[in-house]
Design a protein that fits this description.
The complex is a heterodimer of chains A (about 250) and B (about 220).
Chain A (H helix, E strand, L loop, with lengths): L1 H14 L1 H33 L13 H28 L2 H33 L7 H22 L3 H33 L14 H33 L4 H8 L1
Chain B lengths: L1 H17 L2 H21 L3 H23 L2 H9 L1 H7 L4 H30 L4 H29 L5 H28 L5 H30 L1
Helix pairs in contact in B: 1-6, 2-3, 2-6, 3-6, 3-7, 3-8, 6-7, 6-9, 7-8, 7-9, 8-9
């Protein structure tokens, strides 16, 4: 009980805007620094050290950007749904802000995954776009992000907007598996030109390690840019409060 | 509890029959858009026959979405929606009454007019029953999902465009399974699996969406 109580206290402390603002400011340089290091390491090992793929040649190297971006696009949507639920249930302002600040980052990752996917598709499939199941569900995910951002911008009162967006994100997260499997089923019956799929166990360790480094780097980038957005949003929303005034005085 | 449900159901039907344009306008839209396709494509019987299920389904989707605007609008404007939240009966139950009534007003006429439009697009007669079956299973789902979107946007001035951004991605599974079922049955295969999936999605929508709709309405009324 004592441990639970201290966890709860820590949680509330972390969720208070001035505390979060201070702590995130301390962490931010380390997060971004670590991101730069891992990103450089991942790019170097992925683009230069990793062996050439015997089937796809050099062109496969785009997966070091594409795959982590695609992972992030889904991960961030889930983060939005979870923080949205927290915001709805406990009315936690910070959770709402984390949710809404995640949306543009998630949309950018989704867009990046789509663009790198089609750049990869050009030499591989000889076409920029294929109605492949994964591409299509990624496109639909981008549409879901657009819906979230449009709804948030349309509602004047930002606290109401955050609650509306939280409901939408939760509805979306229930729908994502349905959309994904329906698209997959649709695609298998249409039999698109899906020549290549990465066989998960067959990827060699020397190719896998850079990928994992890049995935961690992308996560760090997300956390770092999320912190920046949340800090700005906190200042904007709490501009009349005492702690912001105190900050300005310094 | 069921009494309140029935009251709202009857009231909504009555209001709709007093203002028939609400029933008729989405239907006219449906008919007009579908007749645009042969005009744009040309009188190509083979092509039209092939894409007819897609045309009918996409248009039905858009017509449903447009007609949804009436679902909560007037109740929101005159405050009766606020009164409903004060009732002892949970709002999540009451909204199902409104949606059921709305489906009878807009979904059912759509179904009734579809055979006529199917003939215009050269759909073979034996396909029409399958087309109606997919619409029967699909349009209630569209109404339920769409109601979530409309509940979120009812308080907004320019809700229409945003509504389409919110709910069109969510409509895609229904569209996919419906058109797959039609393609399968056109090629002589069984469409049972797709119809079962549509039914499953409908059941899921019936059980979950009322809660989302009620929560969204409470946010909009805030």
């Amino acid at each position: 009980m004592n441990i639970l109580g201290s966890i709860k206290r820590l949680y509330h402390q972390f969720a208070s805007p001035p505390y979060f603002y201070r702590i995130s400011g301390l962490w931010l340089p380390y997060i971004m620094g670590l991101f730069v290091l891992l990103f450089a390491a991942g790019l170097y090992s992925g683009l230069i050290l990793a062996p050439i793929d015997y089937e796809q040649g050099e062109a496969y190297r785009i997966i070091y950007v594409h795959v982590p971006a695609a992972w992030m696009s889904m991960f961030i949507y889930i983060v939005m749904a979870v923080t949205g639920a927290i915001g709805l249930i406990w009315r936690l302002k910070l959770a709402e802000i984390v949710m809404i600040s995640s949306a543009p980052i998630g949309a950018s990752f989704t867009f990046l995954a789509l663009v790198t996917g089609s750049i990869w598709g050009k030499p591989m499939w000889n076409t920029w776009w294929v109605w492949d199941a994964r591409l299509t569900s990624e496109l639909l995910l981008l549409f879901l992000y657009f819906g979230v951002m449009a709804l948030y911008n349309a509602i004047e009162d930002k606290r109401t907007a955050a609650r509306a967006v939280a409901i939408l994100a939760l509805v979306g997260v229930v729908n994502i598996p349905i959309i994904h499997y329906s698209v997959e089923w649709w695609n298998t019956l249409h039999q698109g030109p899906t020549i290549t799929k990465f066989d998960k166990p067959s990827i060699h360790l020397s190719m896998l390690v850079p990928l994992l480094i890049m995935a961690v780097a992308f996560k760090l980038f997300y956390v770092g840019s999320l912190f920046m957005r949340v800090r700005t949003e906190l200042l904007a929303r709490e501009q009349k409060s005492k702690w912001v005034a105190n900050l300005l005085k310094k | 509890m069921f009494d309140a449900w029935l009251q709202i159901f009857k009231r909504d039907l009555l209001i709709a029959f007093r203002r028939r344009s609400e029933i008729i306008h989405p239907l006219i839209f449906f008919v007009m858009v579908i007749s645009l396709f042969p005009l744009a494509i040309g009188d190509d019987k083979v092509l039209l026959q092939k894409i007819a299920p897609a045309i009918i389904w996409v248009t039905a989707l858009l017509a449903t979405m447009l007609s949804l605007d009436n679902l909560f609008r007037s109740d929101f404007d005159d405050g009766s929606l606020e009164q409903m939240t004060l009732l002892k009966t949970p709002l999540s139950l009451l909204v199902t009454a409104k949606i059921t009534a709305h489906w009878f007003i807009t979904g059912l006429p759509l179904l009734l007019i579809t055979p006529l439009l199917a003939v215009l697009l050269y759909v073979p007669t034996e396909m029409i029953s399958m087309l109606l079956l997919t619409l029967l299973l699909g349009t209630p789902t569209l109404s339920l999902i769409g109601a979530v979107g409309i509940a979120l946007t009812v308080g907004l001035r320019q809700g229409g465009v945003i509504l389409s951004l919110l709910i069109l991605p969510l409509y895609i599974p229904v569209l996919i399974f419906a058109t797959l079922a039609l393609q399968n049955s056109a090629q002589g295969f069984s469409a049972e699996a797709q119809l079962a999936m549509m039914l499953a999605i409908l059941v899921l929508a019936i059980t979950l969406s009322p809660f989302a709709i009620a929560a969204a309405l409470k946010v909009s009324l805030n």
